[in-house]
Amino acid sequence: MAHELDQVRTGAAPHWKPENIIGTISLNTLLFSNDYRHIALKGILTAFIMLALGGTFALIFRTELAVPGVQFLGARVYMTLMTLHGMVMVFGFLIPLTISVCYYMIPKVLGTERLAAASIAQWSYWILILASVLLIIGRPDFTWTAYAPMSLRVGGSLVWMGYLAILLVAVSEFLAGIVLWANAMTGLKAAGSWSKLPMMGWGAAILGLLMVVSTIPLGFIGLGLLTDWLEITAWFDPARGGSVKFFLYVFWTYGHPAVYLPFIPAIAILYTLLPRILGRPMWSYWSGVVAFLLLGLFAMPIGPHHFQPLYTISGWYERMIQIFTLLVFIPSVLHVFNWIATIWGDPIARSARNSVPFKFMISAIAFVIYGGATAYVNAQIATDSDFIHNTYWIPAHFHAMFFGFSGQMAFAGFYYLYPYFTGRMYNQKMANSHFWLWQIGLFTKITMMFVAGYTYFPRWVYDYLPLKEWLMPQMMITAAGYFIGLGFLIFIYNVVRSSTHGEPAPDEPWPVEHDNDTVPAPTPAE
Amino acid sequence: MENALGLSGGQELLMTITIAITMLGLIGLALALFMEKRWKLTYNIEYLFIAGLLVMAYYGDWASTSIYKAYQEDLRVTEAVSGKFVEDAERDKKFDRILTVVTFQWGFVFITEDDEISRNAAVVKPGERVLFKIVTNDVIHGFNIPVARITAEIDPGDVRELWIRAPDTPGKYLIQCVNYCGVGHAQMKAWLVVLNKDGEVPTAVLKNGENSDGA
Hints:
The structure holds two protein chains of two kinds.
Chain A: H1 2-10, H2 21-24, H3 27-32, H4 36-65, H5 75-109, H6 118-138, H7 159-191, H8 199-229, H9 244-278, H10 285-299, H11 316-327, H12 329-345, H13 350-354, H14 356-373, H15 375-378, H16 381-388, H17 393-422, H18 428-454, H19 468-501
Helix pairs in contact in A: 4-5, 4-19, 5-6, 5-7, 5-9, 5-17, 6-7, 7-8, 8-9, 8-10, 9-10, 9-12, 9-17, 10-12, 12-14, 14-17, 14-18, 17-18, 18-19
Chain B: H1 7-34, H2 43-73, H3 89-93, E1 97-104, E2 107-111, E3 117-119, E4 121-124, E5 129-136, E6 141-145, E7 150-154, E8 160-165, E9 171-176, E10 189-194, E11 206-207
Parallel strand pairs in B: 1-5, 4-10, 9-11
Antiparallel strand pairs in B: 1-2, 2-3, 5-8, 6-7, 9-10
């Protein structure tokens, strides 16, 4: 089945055969091999460790926030956990996981059978590990946005490790951008022309370009904070002649494309999996390509909507930012429409309805609608100046997009790939429990964050007033956090146990079977 | 309550549109999953969607800009681009009370026109139009009065002017910082104290939103 689809721009030759890679791998191979499967698996497993870390941090501070008053966390420890949660989740979990899943799929889907520039991917990985270690040791408490001059005036002699970590993250992501671009180009060569390039190739090309361009400002932020802190330069501290505005513009020149860094690979994974699981091509190829191009194009200039540039707020510049931000709706809806139209066209195969990746995909689409449509008011200066700017409305929006969409799409990709590197299927019941625990947890958490934001609950506080409109949402967000944590534990148990005890995967782990199929579809000759 | 930025005006419609498009998307997804009859959607439907989105984007931009322009009309902000407060006696006459606000790590100071200084309390009368002239003397701070439905970010070196119409009901209303500004951020709060008819500080309980009964 996959073979036929591969002809229709979802990839070249299949090369999809389950094998037990994980059971036979040596530590040395896992750590240093340049084979695309090993590099991708290493990235995926590391990302899960990061998710466990970031999730544990979140559960600790969510427990503190469940009821007003100070329970067991002081301000500094709370903010350290909050900062590490943000950085570990975005830089350590989301971006590496979505990109690692892409690393695994690109050589198969584009038919190149190897990861181009694999040694650069290796450097990118190890530099990120170094950055993570520095972050955990340095324990900065200046939030992931590190707004100067606040971030230059926090205590602790190890705070320089935080700045250096930001610089290293930038280098790591820059290198990953080169790898993605190089692979898009080898894929292009294999495909023959752009119009034959699978969506995964388009995704890799645009993501690679975006990463290379946008991480340069982030590197400058890391370096600038470090040299400012050492008092060599005075870029960002107004007390010494620097400019906060300069910081804000440079930071968000990275900061807005940064939220697309997990978003674009997640979309590419969806475009790759949906036709395979449904057994039919995408509704429209060119609609997806145009949407990718527009998304990449709009990503760069709209960073300033993250802050409020004073008094240009009603000037032509801010208005232009507002218009461009509103226009991001167009590529996003083109994508979502394409996915829904693909599902719409024919009855959904029984095999698809039962498969866990498909469930995660559908849920991811629902969350991108939920989190994306509410962005209509985020984009507007008037509503932003009313109840949105830095209230819980913002975390609600980005948890829906980051976790609800990008994170869940990466998990769909992982479940899909699972039989290919273990040679076995995961346990369906446990995977279903994982899925439903996450849906309950995510929906509750995100909705309650919207409610809290609408009633002006401020971000970044470890203690809050016992206002009655804040009590219920805060308690429910914490409870939802535990649902997500429990789902994650079940997931990990399933992944570990099924890799040795799961049912052996058939040659085609994802056959498309309809209700009226009496005999399974024959495996196509290759 | 009359306030140019209040959700009671054009913003209510914006929220309705937001909820409507969320529902539209989710219903479309649900139909695609569960309906019996199947057919290939035509490409024209997508063009129709894009046209609808363009209208929505146009309306959003127009609504937001006109709401915010109307709010800023009374402030005469053009002069403030230079980083100095607007020196305009005519403009100042439109407000019943002018308070200069200094934000710092971690708190607010309110200075009246008579140079009376209050740490962490802005004292006003019911229904007054109050102008806040805000600066920060260290890092980026936020300034948010939930009951007045206004949020702002103040960067070092900037002056920021905001106006509100004070609530009619006497009470203590929350003013809070919403930008992370260091470890004391959670304590960075102040009160908008609305005096009662006798000009006394009310014993009423703390209030956040207009309809809140406090806690």
